[in-house]
Specification:
By secondary structure, the chain is an alpha+beta fold. It is built from 22 helices and 36 strands. The strands form eight sheets. It has a six-stranded antiparallel β-sheet with strand order 17-16-15-20-19-18, sandwiched between helices. Strands 22, 23, 24, 25, 28 and 29 form a six-stranded mixed β-sheet that branches.
């Protein structure tokens, strides 16, 4: 607004006309009343004949000057200069007195504005309310301007002239949204429509616009409030425009918006590289032109991050980089590349100080980069990188790496607000990076643990030919506890086992390891399938009831939840071609016979391991030679959009083609059943059965008489001769002699001797006694106790298994002929 309100018209009622003066067209005082001279403290001869302008304490407002130029009456509160130097506020009313030439004299009347008396003194020192309003408008820090019907500026306050950086005289008469004749301010075009709406509707209108002054480094966000000014009849006679700087609020909202978006876009997976790339993507989408994310090379190792050394150059691995330019041409390090930063560089100082730092690349900085890192200096020069912010990636007190944000296309340098935003983005991303790092490490450990516990293609028993597959769940689902095993047993038999532990992660893998080890241990004892599952069920119950060292039962959070598992245990005998099985809540296996028929075996459903108190039942099946037994976990046949019955149908179709190799059948099963994303581990074990014909097995029933031990040796020697195993005859005779003697002396009839020619020579002696022999060391003068010690020294393996009718002592002997 103008410095004083101008209200053309007659003088107010009651105005004293004693203080008057007459001024000619040249601005010279030609007459002045005594009262007017006394008001200013001058004598009449000091005023008359002099310029009227010298009596002003400040120049007339532009509106008053315009009225003078147009020969219009006006009224305003102005400041006059008293003779003693003080400023004197008076209300001045001017009336033109046209002469014959069109320009004549001016008739002026002056009066002091209304005063307010001090209480009890009769003195006055407060101006009238109207003057206070004018002063308040002039001194208001909020920029304001006033426009007439032609949308031209007629007045503005000091704050507006200061905001536009030009004197009032250059801005009056300009249309709204202009800073000079024909100079429209870019970004303020919306004000034309807003002004039209104010004049048309007579209602307040608000608009927000981005304004970027040419002499400023960055843009401003301004709120324009356009108000109608109405006369006594309610007609819009003018319009006021108030401007509020909303830049800080806009940037604060923008910053919160970016952080909220970052919370949704960063950390969507537990993949380390993807998490780093999401940080770089958010950075380039909102406030940077080029972003790199580097992780300390030690973070990516199994040992984990190391303390930041003070004297050694740090080694980084580029995890992600993004640019507003296609192909990231600014980058000097490829994704996955190993590199380091020069000592004293901004990234190095960031890690040393542990906080985000800005870096403005001026001539001095450019020279430093040229001397320290020629390749990066070339990129800075080529793409015009002028401002950099480096922020450390720190989470849980550990430094993981750093993120570097650069600008080259955006002209504004990074400011403190950008610095805070970069630091908060880096802090948030660091937590997700650390989560991904910890998960990746835990997953790698779990996979390694699980991989060591699964079969690795060692010597396969002659009883079966096997092929297997294990597929862990997707990375965002975690590692499960599926496992399988192929365990050689005595008598050329083989145990086939498959299981699934409840849960995922290291806890499940550790539980799986304990169960698989327990199964191997129990299998060595030659327990029947139902007895083995009973013992395994007790073990799971003990695991579930484990207590802390203090004796307090652990909670589910401390132990990773309740321990539970399913398991199927099968024993196949290649001599009888029978397979006995028992299951603890596990899916039934499939049997594919050589004629192409496939059926799922009917095995009594035992409870899952860990329930306790319920029995397991054994089912026995005749298995034709060359048949394929398929053992699997539910993760193979069940899927996101498939139930178990549908999965079994697909598996049946795969197994029906028994002419294919086992490896091919495994691949086809996975391709058919697991073509896409999976939510659970999947294990598959295929076993094609072989048989040992009568030509490889010899069995004799022996009379329980110690005198016939020599006859047993002869029987063994003759059979070994028939099998062309003469080299093993001496050891075999000795072992047979000791085992038969032991059974005749300590067992009960009937006594049987069986020789089995497999990959090894197996000697078995069975009797009706359930008393198992024990290996012991005989004293010097003991007559017995050395037989089993001799057997243990000569055999590769030996042991004792219990049967329904007694026991069998067996020993496996090496042979030079296979």
């Amino acid at each position: 607004m103008d410095k004083d309100a101008v209200s053309p018209g007659p003088a107010s009622a009651g105005l004293p006309f004693g203080q008057v003066a007459l001024i000619d067209a040249r601005g010279v005082v030609t007459a002045c009343s005594t009262e007017a001279c006394e008001l200013l403290g001058y004598d009449a001869d000091e005023v008359v004949g002099g310029a009227a302008a010298r009596l002003l304490a400040q120049p007339l407002a532009s509106a008053a000057r315009r009225c003078c130029a147009e020969q219009k009456a006006w009224s305003s509160v102005i400041a006059l200069q008293h003779h003693n130097g003080r400023r004197l506020q008076v209300r001045l009313e001017a009336y033109p007195l046209p002469g014959t030439q069109g320009k004549g004299h001016w008739f002026l009347t002056a009066s002091a504005p209304a005063q307010t008396a001090k209480a009890g003194t009769g003195e006055t020192d407060q101006p009238e309310a109207t003057v206070i309003k004018l002063w308040a408008l002039e001194q208001l820090p909020l920029p304001m301007a006033f426009y007439n019907h032609q949308r031209l500026c007629i007045a503005m306050n000091t704050a507006m002239t200061r905001a536009l950086g030009k004197p009032e005289q250059e801005l009056l008469g300009l249309p709204i949204g202009y800073s000079g004749p024909g100079q429209r301010i870019e970004g303020l075009e919306v004000l034309d429509e807003a002004a039209e709406q104010v004049w048309r509707s007579g209602e307040e209108v608000r608009r927000t616009a981005r304004f970027h002054p040419a002499d400023k480094d960055r843009a401003f966000t301004l709120l324009f409030a356009l108000y109608p000014i109405k006369d006594h009849a309610g007609r819009v006679c003018a319009m006021s425009v108030a401007v509020v700087d909303k830049t800080e609020q806009f940037r604060a909202r923008q910053r919160m918006s970016v952080l909220n978006e970052a919370g949704l876009r960063i950390g969507t997976t537990l993949d380390l590289a993807r998490t780093a790339d999401e940080l770089a993507e958010v950075g380039t989408d909102h406030f940077a032109d080029f972003v790199t994310v580097d992780l300390l090379d030690s973070v990516l190792t199994d040992e984990g991050p190391e303390p930041i050394p003070a004297s050694r150059r740090l080694v980084f691995r580029r995890a992600a980089q993004r640019s507003v330019l296609p192909g990231c041409p600014e980058a000097v390090v490829p994704i996955g590349g190993v590199h380091s930063y020069p000592e004293g560089s901004p990234p190095a100082r960031v890690l040393a100080e542990g906080r985000a730092l800005p870096h403005h690349i001026d001539d001095v900085a450019a020279q430093w980069w040229a001397a320290s890192d020629l390749e990066r200096a070339s990129s800075i020069r080529t793409y015009g990188i002028h401002s950099v912010v480096a922020a450390p990636l720190r989470a849980r007190g550990v430094t993981l790496g750093l993120a570097v944000f650069c600008r080259h296309r955006t002209p504004e340098p990074f400011d403190q607000e950008d610095l805070r935003l970069a630091e908060e983005l880096a802090d948030r991303a660091a937590v997700y990076v650390d989560n991904a790092r910890r998960y990746t490490r835990e997953r790698r450990i779990a996979l390694a643990l699980q991989g060591h516990l699964l079969p690795h293609g060692g010597p396969c028993p002659a009883a079966v030919e096997v092929a297997s597959r294990y597929l862990p769940a997707d990375p965002d689902s975690g590692i499960g506890g599926d496992w399988f095993d192929v365990i050689p047993l005595s008598g050329a038999r083989v145990a086939l086992v498959v299981g699934d532990v409840v849960g995922r992660g290291i806890q499940a893998s550790a539980t799986m390891g304990r169960l698989s080890t327990a199964v191997r241990t129990l299998a060595d004892v030659d327990l029947s399938p139902d007895e083995l599952l009973t013992q395994l069920d007790d073990l799971v119950l003990r695991m579930d009831r484990e207590e802390t060292p203090e004796g307090t039962a652990q909670t589910a959070d401390e132990t990773g939840g309740e321990v539970g598992a399913t398991c199927l245990y099968a024993v196949y005998d290649p001599i009888s071609r029978r397979c006995s099985m028992a299951r603890a809540g596990h899916p039934v296996p499939a049997l594919a016979t050589p004629d192409g028929a496939v059926k799922f075996l009917d095995i009594p459903a035992g409870p899952p391991l860990g329930l306790g108190g319920l029995p397991f039942e054994v089912a026995e099946f005749d298995v034709p030679e060359g048949s394929v037994l398929a053992f699997y976990t539910d993760g193979l046949v069940e899927g996101i959009d498939r139930d178990m019955d549908t999965g079994r149908t697909v598996l049946r179709d795969v197994l029906a083609r028994t002419d294919r190799s086992l490896e091919g059948m495994c691949d086809r099963a996975l391709d058919s059943l697991l073509p896409g994303r999976r939510t659970d581990d999947a294990a598959l074990l295929l076993a094609r059965t072989n048989s040992l014909g009568v030509e490889k097995v010899a069995t004799w029933e022996l009379v329980s008489d110690p005198a016939l031990v020599g006859h047993a040796r002869e029987l063994a020697r003759d059979r070994l001769t028939d099998w062309h195993l003469e080299d093993a005859a001496f050891i075999a005779e000795l072992v047979v002699s000791e085992l038969v003697t032991n059974s005749i002396r300590y067992g009960h009839p009937p006594v049987y001797l069986r020789l089995i020619r497999d990959t090894t020579l197996i000697c078995e002696v069975s009797d009706a006694s359930s008393t198992a022999p024990h290996l012991r060391r005989a004293r010097m003068f003991d007559e017995g106790g050395r037989g089993l010690l001799i057997v243990a020294q000569l055999a590769e393996r030996w042991g004792c298994r219990h049967t329904r009718t007694g026991k069998t002592i067996w020993a496996e002997l090496p042979t030079s002929v296979r």
